[in-house]
Specification:
- Chain B: GO terms for molecular function: sarcosine oxidase activity.
- The complex is a heterodimer of chains A (195) and B (103).
- With 195 residues, chain A is α+β, with helices and mostly antiparallel strands.
- Chain A is 21% helix and 35% strand.
- Chain A has 4 helices and 12 strands; from the N terminus they run βββαβββαββαβββαβ.
- In chain A, the strands form 2 sheets. Chain A has a 7-stranded mixed sheet, with helices on one face.
- The radius of gyration of chain A is 17 Å and the shape is globular.
- Chain B has 103 residues and is α+β, with helices and mostly antiparallel strands.
- Chain B has a single domain, classed as 2-Layer Sandwich (Folate-binding fold).
- Chain B contains 2 helices and 6 strands.
- The longest helix of chain B has 9 residues.
- The radius of gyration of chain B is 14 Å and the shape is globular.
- The chains are: A alpha+beta (195), B alpha+beta (103).
- The interface between A and B is medium-sized, with 14 and 14 residues.
Chain lengths: 195, 103
Amino acid sequence: MVEPVSPLGAAWKPGSYANAAGVTGVALSETRPGSIVQAAAWRGEEKALIAAIGKVSGLALADGAGAGVFKDNKAAFGFAPGRFLVVDQKEGLGDTLAAAVKAETGTVTDLSHGRTAIRIAGARAEWVLAKFFAIDFSLTAFPVGAGRSTAHHDIFALIQRTGPEQFDLYVFRSFARAFWSALCHASEEVGYEIS
Amino acid sequence: MQITCPYCGPRDLAEFAYQGDANRTRPDPASTDQQVWNAYVYDRTNPAGEHREYWQHAGGCRSHLLVVRSTLTHEITSVGFVHDKTPSPARSRRRGSSKGAGA
């Protein structure tokens, strides 16, 4: 089995970095899922794909823009019309999902080693993310489980709200270290800890 | 300027890529009428007012959109998916392509 290596490398510096007031407002971490899989439905086959995702992952996805679920260390959300990201802490989801999705329903692409998952949690998580992305991070506009696709300059990011004060971000592996470093800098104002 | 993506909701202009005038109709590829091709490639109406345009939500869901925008005020009166509109005879030939006019 291939041992995944974090692309954060030397930029990963665990510890507590409180702000001038001695507060740590956010916690940053890398969730390191074993499987990150993109599933895309042909037009008109969205419901069949949602059913297949539900059958394999046990996650009941609602049909609607950006709808998603997060439970039991698994996550799924829509990020574009007919396209979904399905995440599992265990490896092998790409193969099981590909076996469950018929060719006439859609396609399954295993992105496990192509994306890096970064978690930001804490009372000031919305504040920090709002520095990066021009979208509404309030709980009413961006409910728990929902996903959004957006970009910070040229770094494309998929964001899922996985708790009232917690977000999981998926960025391209090749941009992960730059994005992580920028996220740490942006968090200095509110204080942060890395674990 | 903001564009309200039908999937993602209102997003900043920086997330979108302009893909050209949506008023043009590609001539029959078999046509050798130089005037028709010249008009297709070079002629633009340049209206002072509402203008149909193709945009792509490149920094978001990557959908191709048909946007009606005022060239005077930047007011956007409608946004929809390109594939929801009735394709013109010329566009429907380009099967699988929703990339707009391909300008």
